[in-house]
Specification:
CATH architecture: 3-Layer(aba) Sandwich
CATH superfamily: P-loop containing nucleotide triphosphate hydrolases
Radius of gyration: 20 Å
Shape: globular
Number of strands: 12
Number of domains: 1
CATH class: Alpha Beta
Helix content: 25-40%
CATH topology: Rossmann fold
Order of helices and strands: EEEHEEHEHHHHHEHEEEHHEE
Structural class: alpha/beta
Strand order of the largest sheet: 6-7-8-3-9-10-12-11
Length: 318
């Protein structure tokens, strides 16, 4: 049984112009111990989908219009407030892209980690356990950092604190939403390697949200590509990177710089992601697609399997 199973999720936001659907029919599975990457440009609905896993979006303005989110076989959308408090941090934990904005600036680091332990592992809510986790995430001088405030730490150190907070309760699923944004490339590599190492030690699953296909190959077992509120392609990582079928996936990969190819101008995808509530009819990528045909403009393409375990939403024959 999958640890996480999202089936036909439909999520809307109330606006002055009416309901705007940001997530439209998304289905996704994450098995125990598996790493799944959800990729796409900003505005495609990745973070909204991730926040929905533990129902972290305020309702209103958000409204779940359909579908289900099964966590260990139980529908999160039908859970009570008390049940949600138990799974948030206890079963599924989050790492966000701006740790400086997620940490409380006036509470010492050690106290914030201890609070997570007190909620979900009260028998371990000690300074010794906090020090153990700070050491485990590679924090230098953990005894000193235990009493530091977040603003006294660098961006990389703040992210290590966030990882310690997220994993101290030993969750079954870690949702990492752009965990390396705003960090330099050296620190990015260290954070990703740390997540890989801790995943192996704890046996947890990871749902990694990113717009950077450059980090997917070394992290993911499977990749789902999202565009304008829908998943447009899904496949095992090697298959998707070697044989991308959807024009949007191909365009994303073409925009990644390569060290093993002659220097050339990077390819940009023309246009922008349409806003929720303003999705075009037919294929939503058609206005930006170099391979668009007449039917793409008015007929929504089906979700079909084009190779074993390789699915896409496109009219192109591949």
């Amino acid at each position: 049984m999958p640890l996480l199973e999202i089936n036909n999720l439909q999520l809307e936001f109330d606006t002055l112009a009416g309901a705007a659907r940001a997530v439209d029919g998304v289905s996704l599975r994450v098995a125990p111990g598996e790493t799944v990457c959800l990729v796409g440009e900003s505005g495609c609905g990745k973070s909204v989908t991730a926040l929905s896993v533990a129902r972290l979006l305020p309702t209103p303005p958000a409204r779940y219009a359909g579908g289900e989110i099964l966590l260990n076989g139980r529908d999160v959308l039908k859970m009570s407030a008390a049940e949600l408090r138990a799974i948030r941090g206890g079963v599924v934990s989050y790492i966000f892209q701006e740790p400086g904005a997620s940490l409380n600036p006036v509470v010492r680091v050690g106290r914030q980690i201890k609070e997570m332990l007190r909620l979900h592992r009260p028998e371990r809510a000690t300074d010794a356990e906090v020090l153990r986790w700070l050491t485990r995430v590679g924090m230098r001088a953990p005894e000193l950092r235990l009493r530091s405030y977040p603003f006294e730490l660098s961006g990389g150190m703040q992210q290590r604190v966030m990882i310690a907070m997220a994993l101290a309760s030993e969750p079954q699923l870690l949702v990492a939403d752009e965990p390396t944004t705003a960090l330099d490339v050296t620190i990015q590599a260290q954070i990703l390697e740390l997540l890989r190492s801790l995943q192996q030690q704890l046996g947890m699953a990871i749902l990694l949200i990113t717009h950077n296909l450059g980090i997917v190959g070394g992290m993911a077992d499977r990749v789902a590509v999202m565009y304008a509120g829908q998943i447009v392609e899904s496949a095992p990582t090697r298959e998707l990177l070697q044989r991308p079928r959807h024009p949007y996936t191909q365009a994303l990969l073409a925009s990644v710089p390569r060290l093993d190819a002659p220097t050339r101008r990077l390819r940009a995808i023309p246009g922008v992601v349409p806003r929720p509530g303003h999705f075009p009819p037919g294929c939503r990528f058609a206005p930006r697609c170099p391979h668009a045909q007449a039917q793409c403009a008015h007929s929504a393409p089906p979700w079909r399997e084009v190779a074993p375990q390789h699915w896409m939403r496109c009219w192109l024959e591949t």
